[in-house]
Write a structure and sequence with these properties.
The chain is 41% helix and 18% strand. The protein is an alpha+beta fold. The protein folds into four domains: 213 residues, Cytochrome Bc1 Complex, Chain A, domain 1; 201 residues, Metalloenzyme, LuxS/M16 peptidase-like (Cytochrome Bc1 Complex, Chain A, domain 1, 2-Layer Sandwich); 231 residues, Metalloenzyme, LuxS/M16 peptidase-like (Cytochrome Bc1 Complex, Chain A, domain 1); 185 residues, Metalloenzyme, LuxS/M16 peptidase-like (Cytochrome Bc1 Complex, Chain A, domain 1).
Length: 930
């Protein structure tokens, strides 16, 4: 959004807005949009949009718009500081996770999610949003506490990617004010803001003509409209007109522009290219939407081309962004810092080649078919789509100042645009997107550029003296998968129905198991999980690092009939997602989501892999090199420190711990074969399917594919000896170090439990983790302000019935990390010795209870909690029925407190402060760049 638009976009356009939306405007200027959407019973999503952001700040107010967003949760006229946590738990929300509040350059959004469309709750939610409008107290003591929280947030955000992005904006959008108005502010500005500045900024910019209320869900629009007016109509109408926004003026380069930002100790460099142009103001129309769609489609094809043509690059990307009336096409790749010259020439070459030659028909058709598949599936999902998704689309149309014609109507138009586009129209729109003679380039990473920006420009100019050509090292195509007869058609020999959950459990004559629920929650969609063998429990010895590339070694080999790229083409054109992983630990799992018509393809691809599974040496070598490249690119930062913590906890147990690059060198192709080949050839198989498809269709698809394989094991191997999990780290405190951001650290608390856990036990531990998080939140964020987002979660491993844990993660500064580690130990000890109050536990139970009611409306829950292991472990079905019968309601304060006493005593707590190794020069600007 550029300057102010205080009316609906459809009032200034020939396009018609969605007539199902109740559009309104109060006498004070506040607008509202309400859409009845009963797709998810009782669900309501509500947002207050304030059309002001960091662009409105003066040099003395940097960061204040975002700071005010925080202060809305720290005391208002009707909600005292600290009271909101209980209210959000009442709604089924967790403070800090589901609370959708954020600030951008030009707007701020506050969101509420209601899992019950109860008028009492809706009124309380509206009262809170009204307080945001004109009832924030801005108490000095709360400002000072929250100041530390925001500094913590800045620290957690202020990493390599953030600094590189800011630096690139300052190159691409020179002269525009927003590049020096990052919403988070700076440490200096955050520390300098006083109470009067908050009051003045809020009074000036939080005015009703800059506010929009949006609500979508299972609610009566006319009744909600009455409530909106009851709570917001009394806000005073502004007596002053809005000033013109100071967005600055783009300083267009006379030719190629370039800049760099040096970040040492990272090894890699991100290269970005951009073409920025002021948006041509014109009335929104069908054709303008078509043009925008074609331009985005062209950039998506460009991203695909970057991945196919630059062999030494990774993370190729391309997209279209708009800031304050300026369109920017941006493309990027990541390369080794030593190869930045090759990288920047290659990026420029691909853009210029595409500008001159356009795209190939087969690439356009391949991408078109993928997007058509997506739009058709989303269209079928719309009637039962979660209202929060639709609410976000309405809000986006307002912030973008575009006509909201309806989520489903947009999909309909997108389908038409896809069917109508052709090579000529895509090429024309791509050329309109890029101005080759005025592009800007930015390099961020471990580069040493003698000569600065002049050197970069010379490299680009020299590269432009040669004719452009491309050669692909990867290939995409609309390759068709052809199922064959892998064996005799399978026949169901055992069948059982579980009426309480409408599940069908079957076994084919080759011993492949099938678990199925017909579900219409997602029209036209099917979710599948194919579990093979025993996963980690088939591993004969502990080999750290093996899990990080073994599965890729199998997939990279392709099958007897198809190369990996051909299978990828099939997957991309026919499926929503596809994966092969060890997330379950007790099986190798193929997972997928697709249209019901593609189920046979999905099962056929897996059958193709399992027909004659082989681990080839060349695919093993490719996989291990990929793992090495990944670890090289991610060898710094807190995440690597967390890997060290995992290895410390589990003593190098390859099921949980991470290997090192050195570990990779001792793993042979025979190690991979010894682990994978037997279970893939002979292992127990169970298939779970949930979706909008009939039982007859599923059996037919299964009988021709997995049901036609040679006989599999009737039962799983006895893997009991491999199921024991040991925490080898001693109780108490430990400091670990990582190479990375010198201003960031993490504190982790870990409380394991080693005994058999019932379903009710696991629910109690989930509730306990919620109480721990609330305690951490209050002590470390609200009281001390030393952490931005402390979290605690229950880690439940159903494949290890005698092992589970609660883990807390706290972002920190390096200097505070040891003290925070001690604070975790103190909080843990306090809870173990004194227990928890009835109110704490009751408040923590409610979010679990509310969300549990919705679980059976999720195909993924039906798949992964209800059906998975249904025949292998019949107690799974019993647990599912118990959840459906509201077992959470039977949770007691006494049971949660019993676990608190058992789990949280000091002798069971492992706490680590993960801090950066000291070194100099992590962020260094090239000072010789003009």
């Amino acid at each position: 959004m550029g300057d102010w638009n205080l009316s609906w976009a459809h009032e200034r356009s020939r396009l018609l807005a969605d007539e199902r939306v109740l559009w309104g405007k109060m006498p004070n200027g506040l607008r509202y949009a309400i859409l009845e959407h009963p797709g998810v019973p009782d669900r309501v999503a509500m947002k207050l949009l304030v059309l002001t952001g960091s662009i409105e700040e003066t040099d003395e107010e940097l960061g204040i718009a975002h700071f005010i967003e925080h202060m809305a949760f720290n005391g208002t006229e009707h909600f005292k500081a600290g009271e909101l946590a209980s209210f959000f738990q009442l709604l089924g929300m967790e403070l800090g996770h589901d609370v959708n509040a954020f600030t951008t350059f030009d707007h701020t959004i506050y969101g509420l999610e209601f899992w019950e469309s109860d008028e009492v709750l809706l009124r309380k939610g509206l009262l809170f949003l009204r307080d945001i409008a004109d009832g924030i107290l801005f108490e000095a003591s709360e400002i000072n506490k929250e100041r530390n929280v925001i500094l913590s947030e800045l620290r957690s955000r202020d990493g390599l990617a953030y600094r590189a992005e800011v630096a690139s904006y300052q190159t691409f959008f020179k002269g525009l004010t927003f590049t020096n108005r990052m919403p988070i502010g700076s440490p200096q500005s955050i520390n300098s803001l006083k109470r009067n500045k908050f009051i003045n900024f809020h009074r000036k910019w939080y005015r009703p003509d800059l506010m929009v209320l949006v609500a979508v869900g299972d609610v009566d629009a006319l009744k909600l409209n009455v409530l909106f007016e009851e709570y917001f109509d009394t806000i005073k109408k502004p007596t002053t007109s809005l000033p013109k926004r100071n967005i600055g003026r783009l300083k267009s380069a006379r030719s190629i522009d370039a800049d760099a930002f040096r970040i040492s100790h990272v090894g890699s460099a991100t290269i970005r290219a951009a073409s920025v142009n002021p948006t041509r103001k014109k009335s929104e129309s069908f054709e303008s939407k078509r043009l925008a769609f074609n331009q985005n489609f062209g950039l998506e094809l460009l991203q695909q081309r970057l991945g196919e043509t630059i062999a030494y690059g990774s993370k190729g990307g391309a997209g279209f962004i708009n800031y304050f009336g300026h369109d920017a096409a941006v493309a990027s790749i990541e390369v080794s810092g030593k190869r930045w010259e090759e990288g920047i020439r290659a990026l420029d070459r691909v853009i210029r080649y595409t500008y001159n030659k356009g795209f190939e028909e087969k690439d356009i058709e391949f991408h078109r078919s993928r997007k058509l598949f997506r739009t058709q599936k989303l269209s079928s999902l719309y009637p039962k789509m979660d209202p929060s998704r639709i609410c976000e689309s309405i809000v986006k149309s307002i912030t973008d100042d575009t006509v909201f014609m309806g989520y489903d109507q947009n999909l309909s138009w997108e389908t038409k645009f896809l069917k109508d586009l052709n090579k000529k129209s895509i090429h024309r729109s791509f050329k309109e997107t890029w101005d080759l003679e005025h592009m800007a380039f930015h390099i961020a990473g471990e580069v040493n550029i003698e000569g600065g920006s002049d050197k970069i420009k010379k490299i680009i100019s020299k590269g432009r003296n040669y004719p452009v050509s491309l050669s692909k090292f990867q290939f995409q195509s609309d390759f068709e998968f052809e199922p064959i007869m892998w064996g005799k058609t399978g026949v169901v020999v055992d069948s059982k129905t579980v009426p309480e959950i409408d599940a069908h459990l079957m076994r084919f004559d080759n011993n492949v198991r099938l678990n199925f629920i017909e579900s219409h929650l997602e029209p036209g969609i099917v979710c599948v999980n194919v579990r093979i063998g025993g996963g980690f429990f088939d591993l004969k010895k502990n080999i750290p690092g093996l899990r990080e590339f073994a599965l890729q070694a199998f997939l990279y080999g392709g099958t007897n009939r198809y190369e990996p790229y051909q299978i990828l083409s099939i997957i991309n054109s026919a499926m929503i997602n596809f994966g092969f992983d060890l997330a379950d630990h007790d099986a190798f799992s193929f997972r997928g989501t697709m249209g019901s018509e593609a189920l046979e393809y999905f099962l056929g691809i897996i059958t193709e892999y399992l027909h004659k599974p082989t681990i080839y040496r060349f695919s093993y070598e490719n996989a291990i090199m990929g793992a090495v490249r990944y670890r090289m690119s991610s060898s710094i930062g807190i995440q690597n420190g967390y890997r060290e913590f995992q290895s410390y906890l589990f003593g190098g147990d390859g099921r949980f711990a991470w290997g090192t690059r050195k570990d990779y060198t001792v793993v042979s192709v025979n190690d991979v074969r010894d682990w994978l080949e037997d279970p893939l050839n002979h292992g127990y198989i169970d298939v779970s399917i949930v979706g909008d498809i009939t039982k007859k269709q599923v059996i037919d698809n299964m009988s021709k594919t997995l049901g036609a394989l040679k006989d599999r094991r009737l039962e799983k191997k006895n893997t009991a000896p491999n199921r024991e999990v040991k925490i080898v780290a001693p109780a108490g405190y430990r400091q670990l170090e990582f190479t990375g951001q010198e201003h960031q650290a993490m504190v982790v608390g870990y409380w394991p439990i080693n005994r058999y856990l019932t379903l009710q036990d696991r629910i109690a531990l989930q509730v306990l983790s919620g109480v721990i998080e609330r305690r951490l939140w209050k002590r470390l964020r609200e009281d001390l302000g030393v952490s931005y987002s402390p979290k605690a979660e229950f880690l439940s491993y159903r494949e290890y019935p005698e092992f589970a844990a609660i883990e807390a993660k706290i972002d920190s500064s390096p200097e505070h990390a040891p003290d925070l580690a001690q604070a975790i130990l103190e909080i843990s000890k306090e809870i173990a010795e004194n227990g928890l109050s009835n109110a704490e536990i009751t408040n923590a139970i409610r979010p679990v209870k509310i969300k549990t009611r919705q679980l059976f409306r999720s195909n993924q829950f039906l798949l992964n909690f209800v059906l998975k292991r249904a025949q292998e472990k019949p107690e799974t079905i019993k647990d599912a029925i118990a959840v459906k019968n509201d077992i959470v309601a039977s949770m007691t304060v006494e049971k949660v407190n019993a676990f608190a006493k058992e789990l949280l005593h000091p002798d069971n707590a492992r706490v680590a402060a993960i801090t950066p190794k000291p070194y100099i020069g992590l962020f260094q600007m090239n000072t010789d760049l003009p």
